[in-house]
Write a structure and sequence with these properties.
Order of helices and strands of chain A: HEHHEEEHHEEHHHHEHEEEEEHEE
Helix content of chain B: 40-55%
Strand order of the largest sheet of chain B: 1-2
Distance between the termini of chain B: 84 Å
Number of domains of chain A: 2
CATH class of the largest domain in chain A: Alpha Beta
Number of helices of chain B: 31
Strand order of the largest sheet of chain A: 6-5-7-1-8-11-4-12
Strand content of chain A: 5-15%
Radius of gyration of chain B: 33 Å
Oligomer: heterodimer
Number of helices of chain A: 11
Structural class of chain A: alpha/beta
Shape of chain A: globular
Strand content of chain B: under 5%
Largest interface: A-B, 102 and 114 residues
Structural class of chain B: mainly alpha
Largest sheet of chain B: 2 strands, antiparallel
CATH superfamily of the largest domain in chain A: Alkaline Phosphatase, subunit A
Number of strands of chain A: 14
Chain lengths: 475, 850
């Protein structure tokens, strides 16, 4: 389906049911070009992860550490983070055949670094978390637009209608800035929004099973009940011919029942072999953790999400969003290290690196990496100058994203930052989120300029009116 | 041959040919250009630097070079761009390609040399929605006989509908039975299922006017305002948290919600309804409505961090404030005029005649405002008294704060980079007095402890400079004066009764970095055209104004630069509601039509521009809009007209023969040969679940109920719906009174397609998904209400069968048939009444209205 038709087609279908109205129906009957990938994992570091301390090696900062920061121009920062230059908190070493320099704190990613394409010249629009986060998740810096996962679900539809098409694994401590807006369907059908899963909670998926107050409901009453709902529904539909919505709703009860079987199975990691659990660092889970933020705990929570993500992807889930870090508060449990990079970034990075490296290796060993895109992102970067000695302020002028997997050329770096990691080296040629989104859609077989839906008078796209696939990182 | 004669013949031939070519152009070519091209390619807009209004303009070509090569179709760019490939042509942009016949005409025209009559300049046609609104006459049939003589017709609406149906060889469907009609009317007008007794009464009522009386009764019910306020709140994106980061609560947003309910129930004239929401404080200063209605301006999201943590002087602060005004402008123009305008913030509107300057003129209207709380009374005099005391108090507080800093009385050095010159405290009732006392105590203590305040930080080794001493003494004196004056104001304030508080669009006297414009006397911020919408490239400054595309209205406001900001909003409110503005009347009629019939006469209710959908019954829209505008401007009358029409009363299932015929001509029922079956909206579904269970609490108004538990309220509240106790009776009120969170929308209602409070929702999506089934089966509210539903049903019958029949009637407004009762009874025998009630909630019939 092409631009203008978009949602109009669906609204039409829902009015009279000229077409089968099914939640999993793709809007694109035919892809725009042959795809390289079928699935996407988006890893989102909420709070703004420091490119300088993880991926973007800046020897100049080490050399100038402690000297008053001088950017050679007026710099506007979010708070007061224009203290002396601050060297990366951890040492960097080369990894893989590509010899990419990585920080010790993400050393686990060294094993898979040759799969990864780094982009160090990302720029955002503002240094405000909410806007930056929305920009990365939806392509707009204000609420009201569909997330990339919703667009992908809308365009490509489901590969397994017994599971949600778009799954979100939030930080177990809570939601990031903007909450559910980061996986919203906005003006796309509500079935395209991300379904939240908390793998470690008592109720991982809301409403999958009767609420605890439903003590009168048994397995039998439930199953027979659904059968009766649909039996009576069919009688009702018979006297109202031609309304496909009525049949779609009957079908949705059947699908709901299948989902009740499929989802718990997908979430159940108890059957995973020891060597796999070990890879993720999940072979030895303690019953309690330190009160202070620590690498072990972060590893376990992040890896659990990665493992569940892999199981979901295997079973045909189209898009998985994994979040690290929740909202801003103290003590910090996100990447917004204004006060102390070492304290927050340390454990968060170690956990992220272990889980992510395992996910990449695990997908690779199953032959799934070749058609699964992994995108690592954050709302913006952090400043090369220090804030209060050990922290760093927001840097929307320059940060890092990386991609790997389906159709991505590994072991490359595209787009350098300047000597400080402050802004793109070539300020006229930055990479923007639109380019990242265009690249992901391109790999999925979608021309980002042609997946559009008219809403309130504008043909809306994930990439607004911008964006180009980054050909330099395509395999 | 005579030479002269030959010349004459040639001349005659030539002029004859010329005349023929002229005619061909005027009759065939010009209409195509006018219909498809001129709206963008005119002197005013010149998209792609191309204008097509005259021969000269055509020959000049555009950005892409020559538009045509006369005589050479294949080399003509214009022909190339209108030629479709795979059913799509690049021109007209965003529209369907020209028809084959139209393209043939242009081909022929170019092939014949692209003749253009000498001196002819084409006029850009006025887009349908911008044409002046004139009441059309009622349609007649092919023989000129008025259609209102047709026996099917009940009111003028039906004549327009019948005309289009007849044109297509279709006829309307039979009237639905009374059981269906009462259920339809109830859900439509009050959003609840009809009580079974009322169904029985209505069905048996011998009164031929029974239907009309029912309509009147429902429109008089306070439930009507609650039902229709929900539609309005969708459109204006009303929410009760800020959204964005930290998503803090707006505990006093609800007065606007109550205002809307009240305005609808009172059936306010639409002009007043519009004006109050934009400038009620100025135009209707006599009561609380004029203040509470301004919740319209503040309805949308607000970036707390971008305002309260970043000052207006920084880029991020500017962006946040730009987005904030943008939201106000969009909301206003989309809600009342159904025009999309946001794209004009970066460039001239691509499709509609809206310039960038006009867009920023609209921003200038709101430039003094922020979203904030205001204190007021029903008595405007008291409000004024309070406001002026507070204004003075706030200003004094600021002076006090500065003096305190200068005198180093403030022991807490501000470390926050982003805080500007303002105290953190705000003028509020009780704490004020406490503050005044604290300040007085503090200065006393300091003086006691260390002698004179200026000595506090003085360097012991340095001898006091007499000049400085003098200055400090003066400051100290000033400080004491300020403190005592402030104390007086606080005590005056203390004597006033407890004020009401509402969150509205207002001049703000803020604190920290969120200062507002209050301290500048409420003077609007300067608004510049922003190149490409970027706050770092401001262009020329603009004055407040509106759009130039409305005939007869002056887009420039006659407001003096130093006039109070309210004058700007007053000018805009007057401009929008001017009877010569054709859009508001068309807009509201179309919105009502959509909610009654399932889709609008224009299917894009927020966009009557060129990217919007074409009207299905333009004459009908014009008729209703003109009648509405020129008579009482009564929404209730408009409802009455719509729902008493024969069109509305049709069955939603047509005769098979009729269906078969109509499927070929109008499969999606644009022409309304039957009524549309509709699915219950999220809120109606929730309210019905509560009503049927007997738990619905019909208390009206006041603060919203919260169906979540707030975790970590101190920084970023986490709204945890799953921890709410569904048995809490406070949460059993109608959904319109639910506290609406932006960052974490209510999961049950969200999955049922409720409106997103961060978006201007003119029309909700309607989807069907397994997640909805799971929610209605398993959500704690549904589960708990199944139990209560069963408890209620148990009292309504001697035996299980009777109880099931009673439950069925409560939920579906009809008794079960034999097969249904048997199947349900068999199930109830095995699993009990609660499980059975759960089944009834989940039936298709419960969720759909015929």
């Amino acid at each position: 389906m092409q631009s203008a038709g978009g949602l109009g087609g669906i609204a039409l279908a829902s009015m009279l049911g000229e077409e089968t109205l099914r939640a999993d129906e793709p809007a694109l009957r035919v892809l725009h070009h042959p795809p390289k990938a079928k699935r996407v994992v988006q890893l989102f570091m909420s709070g703004a992860a420091s490119h300088l301390d993880l991926f973007d090696y800046k020897p100049e900062l080490i050399k100038r550490h402690g000297e008053p920061s001088d950017f050679g121009e007026h710099v506007e920062v979010f708070q007061n983070g224009l203290g002396p230059w601050l060297r990366p908190i951890w040492d960097f070493k080369p990894y893989g055949e590509s010899g990419k320099m990585l920080s010790d704190v993400v050393a686990d990613l060294g094993d898979v670094v040759d799969e990864i394409a780094f982009i160090h010249n990302m720029v955002g629009k503002t240094g405000v978390h909410s806007q930056g986060t929305l920009l990365q998740s939806t392509g707009f810096n204000r609420p009201g637009f569909p997330a990339m996962g919703a667009w992908v679900s809308y365009g490509l539809g489901s590969m397994n209608e017994n599971l949600p098409t778009f799954v979100v694994l939030p930080d177990h401590r809570g939601l990031a800035s903007n909450g559910t807006k980061n996986w919203d369907a906005a003006f796309l059908p509500s079935s395209k929004q991300g379904t939240i899963i908390f793998p470690s909670q008592e109720v991982p998926i809301a409403d999958l099973f009767p609420a605890k107050q439903g003590d009168f409901i048994t397995h039998q009453s439930d199953a027979e009940g659904v059968a009766l709902i649909n039996e009576l529904g069919r009688q009702h539909a018979e006297s109202r011919p031609g309304d496909k919505r009525l049949e779609a709703r009957i079908r949705s009860y059947e699908l709901a029942a299948s989902m009740q079987l499929a989802a718990p199975e997908a979430l159940d990691t108890t059957g995973e072999p020891e060597h796999v659990l070990k890879m993720y660092g999940l072979d030895n889970i303690p019953s309690t953790f330190d009160k202070e933020i620590n690498a072990l705990e972060e590893t376990i929570y992040f890896s659990q999400k990665c493992l569940v993500a892999r199981r979901m992807l295997e079973r045909g889930v189209r898009f998985v969003q994994i979040w690290s870090g929740n909202d801003n508060r103290f003590p910090r449990r996100n990447w917004d290290s204004h006060e102390d990079i070492n304290r927050d970034h340390g454990p968060l990075s170690r956990g992220m690196a272990r889980g992510t490296a395992a996910l990449i290796a695990d997908l690779r060993q199953r032959g799934m990496l070749e058609d699964t895109i992994i995108l690592w992102t954050t709302e913006f970067g952090r400043m090369p100058s220090s804030q209060g000695g050990k922290g760093r302020d927001h840097n929307p002028y320059g940060f890092t994203n990386w991609l790997c997997g389906g159709g991505i050329k590994g072991g490359v770096t595209h787009g350098e930052s300047d000597q400080w990691g402050y802004k793109p080296l070539d300020r006229l040629q930055p990479t923007e989120v639109y380019d990242i989104h265009a690249t992901v859609l391109h790999l999925l077989g979608i021309d980002h300029t042609r997946l559009a839906v008219r809403h309130n008078g504008v043909d809306r796209r994930l990439t607004d009116v911008h964006g180009h696939p980054i050909s330099e990182i395509l395999a | 041959m005579n030479y002269r004669f030959a010349t004459v013949v040639l001349w005659l031939l030539a002029t004859g040919a010329l005349r023929a070519e002229d005619d061909f152009f005027r009759q065939n070519v010009a209409p195509i250009l006018q219909k498809h091209c001129l709206s963008c390619h005119n002197e005013h807009q010149k998209k792609g630097e191309l204008s097509l209004i005259s021969a000269d303009a055509l020959l000049e070509g555009g950005e892409s070079g020559d538009a045509i090569a006369p005589g050479d179709v294949d080399s003509s760019y214009l022909i190339e761009v209108i030629t479709p490939e795979d059913g799509e042509a690049s021109m007209p942009e965003g529209q369907k390609p020209l028809t084959q016949a139209e393209r043939d005409i242009l081909h022929q025209w170019v092939a014949d040399g692209a003749h253009w009559p000498k001196g002819l300049v084409l006029e850009e046609p006025l887009w349908w929605s911008l044409r002046p609104l004139v009441r059309p006459s009622l349609p007649v049939d092919a023989e000129g006989k008025p259609l209102n003589e047709d026996p099917w017709v009940r009111n003028p609406i039906d004549t327009f509908i019948l005309q289009k149906l007849t044109e297509k060889g279709l006829r309307p469907s039979a009237e639905a039975d009374r059981k269906t009609l009462i259920r339809r009317l109830y859900y439509d007008l009050v959003g609840l299922p009809p009580p079974p007794e009322e169904v029985d009464q209505f069905v048996a009522d011998p009164d031929p006017e029974a239907y009309e009386k029912l309509v009147d009764r429902l429109l008089d019910s306070p439930r009507y305002g609650e039902r229709w306020a929900r539609h309005w709140l969708d459109v204006v994106h009303y929410g009760e948290t800020h959204g964005y980061d930290k998503d803090k609560l707006r505990l006093n947003a609800w007065p606007y919600r109550d205002y809307v309910i009240r305005a609808l129930n009172e059936d306010k004239r639409y002009t007043q309804f519009m004006q109050e929401q934009i400038a009620g404080d100025v135009l209707f200063p006599d009561g609380a409505d004029g203040i509470e209605a301004l919740g319209f301006i503040s309805a949308g999201p607000w970036d707390h961090v971008g305002h309260a943590e970043v000052p207006e002087t920084k880029i991020d602060g500017k962006v946040a404030r730009h987005l904030d005004r943008d939201d106000m402008v969009r909301n206003t123009i989309m809600t009342f005029m159904s025009l999309t305008i946001g794209c004009a913030q970066c460039h001239e509107h691509k499709f509609d005649p809206i310039s960038q300057e006009e867009y920023y003129s609209l921003q200038a209207v709101f430039a003094a405002l922020d979203r904030a709380e205001t204190q007021y009374y029903d008595d405007p005099q008291l409000t004024q008294q309070r406001q002026s005391l507070r204004r003075r108090g706030r200003t004094l507080q600021r002076r006090e704060y500065k003096l305190k800093k200068a005198l180093k009385l403030d022991e807490k050095e501000s470390t926050e980079e982003n805080s500007e010159e303002a105290p953190e405290e705000t003028i509020v009732e009780k704490p004020e007095e406490k503050r005044a006392k604290e300040t007085a105590d503090k200065i006393a203590a300091k003086t006691e402890e260390k002698g004179e305040p200026q000595a506090i930080e003085a360097d012991a080794s340095a001898a006091p400079d007499p000049e400085e001493q003098k200055e400090l003494a003066a400051k100290k004196k000033e400080f004491e004066e300020v403190t005592s004056e402030l104390k007086e104001i606080l005590s005056e304030l203390g004597k006033l009764p407890e004020p009401k508080i509402a969150y509205i669009g207002t001049v703000h006297y803020g604190a920290g970095t969120f200062l507002g414009t209050g301290y500048q006397g409420g003077q609007p911020r300067k608004i510049h055209i922003l190149n490409r919408g970027s706050v770092t490239s401001p262009g020329k400054e603009v004055q407040p104004g509106a759009l130039g595309c409305i005939e007869g209205l002056n887009p420039r406001f006659d407001v003096a630069e130093d006039a109070p900001e309210g004058e700007r909003r007053k000018a805009l409110a007057t401009w929008i509601s001017d009877l010569r503005n054709p859009l508001p009347w068309r807009s509201i009629v179309n919105r009502l039509w959509q909610y009654h019939f399932g889709r609008g006469i224009i299917e894009t209710p927020n966009d009557f521009g060129r990217m919007g959908a074409p009207p299905s019954h333009l004459e009908l829209l014009n008729y209703l809009a003109a009648e509405f505008r020129d008579h009482d401007q009564s929404l209730k009358q408009l409802h009455r007209q719509m729902v008493t029409s024969a069109t509305y009363r049709q069955a939603s299932v047509a005769e098979p023969e009729q269906t078969q015929q109509a499927q070929k001509i109008d499969a999606d029922n644009r022409l309304l040969w039957r009524m549309n079956r509709r699915r219950l909206e999220a809120e109606a579904l929730r309210d019905a679940v509560l009503q049927v269970s007997g738990k619905l609490d019909l208390t009206m108004g006041g603060p919203s109920f919260q169906d979540f538990v707030i975790d970590k309220p101190e920084h970023s509240p986490h709204y945890q719906y799953h921890r709410h106790d569904p048995e809490d009776p406070k949460s059993h009120r109608r959904s319109i009174y639910r506290f609406i969170v932006r960052s974490q929308t209510q999961p049950f209602l969200t999955v049922m397609d409720c409106a997103d409070p961060s978006m201007l929702v003119a029309k909700r999506n309607e989807t069907i998904s397994p997640l909805q089934s799971l929610a209605l089966l398993n959500n704690q509210l549904a589960v708990v209400m199944s139990k209560h539903f069963a408890e209620r049903a148990a009292t309504m019958g001697e035996n299980l069968k009777e109880q099931i029949a009673a439950a069925f009637r409560l939920a579906l407004s009809r008794p079960p048939n034999e097969a249904e009762l048997t199947a349900l009874s068999r199930y109830a025998d095995r699993h009990g009444l609660a499980n059975t009630c759960r089944v009834i909630y989940n039936l298709n019939e419960f969720s759909f209205v015929d």
